[in-house]
């Protein structure tokens, strides 16, 4: 537990996250040309590039240089213990397949959590020139400007972003769910990056988002940005976000989308 006299200022954590995400994004953007697959993880479609590893190494080194007692949870190098009560949750390149193919929609995502709750975040989408930041209770910003998601629309008029898992079995199940969702919404979008989807939702590029199989580093930082912009980020019907399902939308639309997804078993593999 973080004691009162040692509790860090979330704004200072946010400022550190922004600085590190900016540097990491520049590094990754320079390294995108000519990048190749280093290895695969859970399946042949779950790829890691050399730049994923190099970028996470940079992020870890900068965070721990500034705050050596903090813990770090990163996608590539796992969990490093700390004693301060602060844990950084890092996705060095969210949207690695996009990155590998030279596309624009990938992001560096860094969140600071205290007692398991995200209190500060930065999400850098370098190829689009967008830096998102948030402090719990202090709002969200994009490139320094306050960010507020637009009002909810009816489910039938909602542009819904989603993503798919890496295993063939899960993809097949998600495709079946999608065939039931698509006729009941305006349309579907697939960016290939949860961080881009959630920050895009905060910016009004989508009306809602759902995805099964996300890890904490996928949604911690962009989820705080979305929440501080007025989006409800959770699971079905008030549950916390988890690997089972993340659903994000304005509160009224969140309920309607949850009502649609729950009987379809969108939070299961069938």
UniProtKB/TrEMBL annotation:
Mg(2+) 2 binds at residue 93. Its cofactor is Mg(2+). Its EC number is 3.1.3.25. Keywords: Hydrolase, Magnesium, Metal-binding. It comes from the Bacteria. GO terms for molecular function: inositol monophosphate 1-phosphatase activity; metal ion binding. PROSITE patterns: IMP_1 (PS00629). It holds the Pfam family Inositol_P. It catalyses: a myo-inositol phosphate + H2O = myo-inositol + phosphate. Belongs to the inositol monophosphatase superfamily. This is Inositol-1-monophosphatase. It comes from Nocardiopsis algeriensis.
